[in-house]
User: Fold this.
Amino acid sequence: MKAGITSPFFSRRFEVRDISAQYGGPTFDLVFHDAESRVVRYSEAVWDSEALALAEAERLEDTQACPVHWDAY
Assistant:
């Protein structure tokens, strides 16, 4: 089963992704669309609620963060 983007929050840069199927419980991470490097990156951290992940995505967007240290796929 593929992980899905569940959040209504969407910027061109950050998305909240539901990866619960991989963990057996509510689990969310962030996806960063790195236009400069032309890759998609995913956060090292995971959250146990969509609301917490959404708050972090919004914080990163507000600060114009560019987490290039995240792994790419």
Q: What stands out?
A: The two ends are 17 Å apart (CA to CA). The helical segments are 20-23, 50-62.
